[in-house]
Fold:
Amino acid sequence: MYVDSLLEFSDAQALTGTAVSTNVVPVSANIGRGQPMAVVVTVGVAADYTSSDETYQVTIQTDDAAGMSSPTVIASSGVINGDDLPLGSKIVVPLGFSNEAFLRINYVLAGSTPTATVSASLMPMNMIDSYASYADNVVIL
Structure:
């Protein structure tokens, strides 16, 4: 499955602490009425868990302005230990039916040395099982 760049929050974004996604995704209010949607985060470089206290969380924020001056959290993955995020793992955060015009991700990292590299996009729930993420420059025959 191809990912539409307009629905992409992060493309191999390196995280070393709490940060927001590289991109803000414009959506119409109340997306998903016809098709349930989710944010899918894939891990391109395994999360660090060397100190055994690193945790990671994905929160989805919405706002009525692209600048995200007053974001509201509308969904969250919950806290995940770093040892549960190896290379290739997926975090799926389903979206409800209430949002404003723009979405972004807030990656919340905690602990001694949290690091990870992730890609994330918005997609229909029924496409998640067939979605596979590959490293850049990989030829698939």
In short: The beta strands are 8-15, 19-20, 25-26, 37-45, 55-63, 72-76, 80-81, 90-94, 102-110, 116-124. The chain has a mean pLDDT of 87.
